[in-house]
Model the fold of this input.
Amino acid sequence: MNRLANLLGRARWSLFLALIILSACLSVFLMRGSDSSAVDIVVATIVILVVLVFIAQLLLNLAGFDPDVDERVCNLTSDPVSTALLKRWLSRSKHFRFVGGAAGFVLGVGFANGNLLTLLLSVLGGIAIGGSAAEFHSLRRSATATTSANVITRKLGDYVDRGDSVAMLAVAAIASLFAVLSAISSDVQSGSATVASVGALVVVAITFAMQRFVIARPRPALAADLRQADDLMRRLAARLGFTKPAIALSFGLLAKSVEWFGSDDTGTFVGLVLWGAALGWYIASRQSSKNLLAEVHP
Amino acid sequence: MILLVDATLPLPVYEQIREQVVRMVTAGTLEPGVRMPTIRQLASDLRLAKGTVAKAYAVLEQAQVLETRGHRGSFVLPPPKITSDVTSTVSATLSESADSYVVASRQLGVDLASAIEQLERSWKHF
Amino acid sequence: MDVVESEAALVVARDETRDLGRTLDQLIPPPGSIAKRLVSGVCVVALAVALTFVNMSGWLYPRPTFGGNASSGTFLVVDQQQQWVTTSVVMPNHSSRSVRMTAIDLDASGVALVGSGVIVEPANGPTMADEASGDFAVDEVSEAMSPEEMFAPEVGSLPVTIEPGETARVFVRFRPTDCTNVVDPIGTWGVALVSLDFGDGSFPPFGRTVGLGDDPIIANGEQPQLIRADGSIINITVDGQPVDAGILTATCDALS
Done:
């Protein structure tokens, strides 16, 4: 990864020039035989260049290329052990989340029937699933027959953000209420509201289970510095990895559920509030330096 | 505070856990009132079946070393007798462990300096 | 001695790094190579693309899409002798599966269903919808098929299969139930309810509702919608003056 980052850093202008030349060649090739002016060819070149850059960026992200990971981790801690561990986690989590989000986008295009908000939910769902999938991994066990453990309790409250816990409880309560109200409604479209509300409940339940899974994941006995680094990694995983995207998704599902209840003033206001909450949690879930620092040094 | 179990030893694993917890409580390194890890967590960390750890906790509870307070978890009880025995227990245990280590090192043909170096490395590991 | 000591220090440092690496491996796997990550990422997205394609084309699980609403300007053919009115809606099969239409019903206020039928038009061929769209060509429509011909037994008796790309023109024949106290509905005045299944029953049947339009009948030849079987336009008039009228007022007036 570092070699690729160095190459791209040193040779970025050469690569860009190569892309321009390639775009120009492609546009000339594609427009051969037609009565195209020079302006047309230039426009086509620009379009092809934008597409190529987009594809290149997409492929780099799908490969988990993250040139800023060193910088972001160094801003968090100076301890070399923590640095090494966090770099691994951040790189892995970002890769999985991007792949999940991209897959969610594609599935949203296919299944959302042109509804942009449904597409957004699909992307959020993909990010949450990607963030969760990053926490499932087969670890290399020690070669010996002995196993060890620190006699220290790991509690959910030490790893999960209190605000997130409150949000999850709120989502569960609202979703239960919506599910009951829509289930007893005779409105033809209430079935969709029930599905969305139950979906939000399921997301919260799965998120809670994932939190417990991450915190209880096996850990051998470790020296204090490594133990602290591992605690930090689990805390970041449980917060930025999947909990915040999942909360954003569940708020979005509740907002969709409200849509089907009707479009009067109250319904519109409640829907806006819920979409606002979804957006807020999504922004807080991004693994930017600012968000990471806020989690590490609250 | 560390627990180390070896499934290949003749001593059952739950007995190994029981012994080490008693040692730590007697030596005072595991203080009264400290909450023990949950059975699920300890079983996961030690890669054991939950039943094995549950048995160890049950035996420790019977011996009045631990007390389970429902869903709140298991807590260390004060040892029944404070110990002029502690120092001798610690020395005896250390001596026994050191003897095992020395014998293993001699059998592998390792010199004293290398043995000490490995000891330091393992100390830092935990 | 210095060289030996520094070499020994390097060895110790390398050993410690390896130990740290091994310990980290017990907490989180080491990152894979860029190539491996790229392949896994592309595979996941490719799988999503495949699922999307399979869904949108209706290949795996048929999800036929049909035209949702009758276009405004759909004509109503009045048969004053038989005292009924016939209208139609177009339902193209945009999916990649053939669909079987098993039942047709009408849900509209103030009318009762008298009969129904369906004609399947071939894919990429001229359709009655094409001929009737654009400039309202009454003559061509009336020459193409009369209301009686629409309901001939050999034409479109249910169930009927609509192949991918084909269009079904669903006809419903109705009669107003009460012309003494006519209250025209506001908005969409009714829907045609069509029952469909596919895959020889291997999937659950589903229904489609097609709105029958909510335009008032506009007189004076503008967007004429009320016609007789011979194609002549019926204008709704009050005291000799053409007026706009709702669907029930217009059909009661035309049938009187």
